[in-house]
Amino acid sequence: MWIPVAYGVVASGWIALSDTLLAGAARSVQEQAAWSILKGFCFVAATSVALHAGLRWTLARERGARRLAEASEAVLRAKEERDLAERKRAAEALRESEEKLALAIEAADMGICHAVPFGPLECSPRFREIFGIADGLPINGFETFLRLVHPDDRDRHRSAVLRSLDPSGEATYEDQYRCVRPDGSVRWISARGKVRFADVNGVRQAVRTAGAVLDITERKAMQAQLMQSDRLASVGMLAAGVAHEINNPLAYLIAALDFLDGECKELAQKSPGVSSAELLEALAAAREGAGRVKHVVRDLKTFSRADEERRVQVELRPVIESSINMVFNEIKYRARLVKDYGKTPPVLANEARLGQVCLNLLVNAAQAIPEGRIDENEIRVSTKTDDLGRAVVEVRDSGPGIPPDVLKQVFDPFFTTKPTGVGTGLGLSICHNIVTGLGGEIIVESQLDEGTVFRVVLPAAPPPAEGDAGTEPALMTPSVAHRPRGRVLVVDDEPAICAALKRVLAPEHEVVALTSALEAHSRIARGERFDVILCDLMMPKMTGMELHAALTSLAPEQAARMVLLTGGAFTPVASEFLNRVPNARVEKPFDAASLRALVRGLVA
Ligand SMILES: Nc1ncnc2c1ncn2[C@@H]1O[C@H](COP(=O)(O)OP(=O)(O)OP(=O)(O)O)[C@@H](O)[C@H]1O
Ligand SMILES: [Mg+2]
User: Fold this and answer.
1) Which helix (H) or strand (E) covers residue 113, if one does?
2) CB-based contacts of 596, cutoff 8 Å, min separation 6
3) Residue 326 Cα to ligand 2 middle (Å)
4) Ligand that comes closest to the CA of residue 432
5) pLDDT tens sequence across 544-565
6) Strand locations in 363-436, DSSP E?
């Protein structure tokens, strides 16, 4: 712009100046012509310069504008690239954090669901898996979801969730409930939820809920089994204590009855005039009664071992017999009980646990048969050895059988078809755990309207190592024909037991009976020696175990001659002691004949 203006100014100035100069000095025609040519030349030159400068200026301006456009385009492109990289980084970070979250949720084995209150549930795949919801099947609302919750837990869970939606509440819920999958199996769920609130038109409202669920069925089953073991352990301890208290008086009661029986028979032989028939009858009844008490206590002891997990060689038959005795009351009004015992090898197991398996199977069989028609129903307990040399126990009943859909689930913890209060659904899952823990298997076969059989197969116990005295107490049978007279020391804090033992053994041996282990110790320390020392295990002041330890250093051959009298209540210390020492032992209540035989064998 300024170039044409400047040109105009310069050209006008020049023309004015030249005209002024010409007007001031009258020149010749040639001078004027030369002057005009010069003026024209100058004018053309000035015009060319102006045009050239203008052109250059325009070109430069265009170049500048182009460069400016290019530069701003580069800036824009750089910004776009920066934005794109930023977005990529953000997307990458989001993906990574989502991946981390998904991995953490997977590690926690959690199922997740989201919902707008009372709207359809968005469920994670694990959530669907836990509840057994098919892929793609919509859950249209909370009430639809609640249909999956066990009817007994439904109301409680509904209340827990509804409370969390209350704006004045804590906005969370926590609950444990059972769900029933479409296939009928029951799972225990631990659920936690969180509610998000927002102001909607000035009113605080729940706008979103999220829930996390865990399948805790196995944990629950474990807890319940532990609780049941605890309960059994306390019942067992109680039973063991009661057994101990009963066994002491029972020991001398039986011994006294045996003695009276013998005396009466002798009296009747010596004085035939004496009418002893009624007396003997009464004595026989008393002995039979005492014998039954003895068996009840023995059966109780099968289930009350303090050494819960210790595995020893176990003969199946006595364990089955004890279990039958415990549940016979359940069986006798429903079915005939048939026992079909074939030979089985001993198994390596814990007697009490094995007893629990038999008991559960027998109770199930009994509960499957309604009371009343005893002649039409049968529960058959049989044992045999299979082709692989394993011990097999079968409990077969003539009950209604188990439908196929139920059969699939009978070993599942908490699966029961019995009403609340009758069954917890743990019996068979406990059996399964115990049997598989012993390396065995438990199988069920059932036919509707015909009955059910549960078969337990257990590996045979390995044969005892050479020189192993076996695990059973050494109740020996003497092979001697003659009866050598020995010196027997009896130590028991219960004077009546001392008297009973003395009565049983005195006809054959010299018997010294003491009620204190301390006194026994001091007599042996003074040099007295005995062929057999019958010693109670649990006594005040000095126990049989302490006497054994003291004699082991004082007179080891006397310690070896100790026979340990046990009342059935084994403290852990007593159990450990009995496992460690090889001494013979006698369980109270003892019977006179076996005791005499044992002492004879040791004196010989
Ligand atoms: N002999 C049987 N005949 C028919 N059904 C049986 C038999 N044994 C088990 N069942 C079925 O298997 C289910 C599970 O048995 P399980 O022993 O585990 O639990 P329960 O007997 O119901 O309860 P619990 O043993 O805890 O008292 C029973 O509820 C019953 O439906
Ligand atoms: Mg049961």
Assistant:
1) strand 111-115
2) 504, 505, 508
3) 15
4) 1
5) 999 999 999 999 999 999 999 9
6) 378-385, 391-397
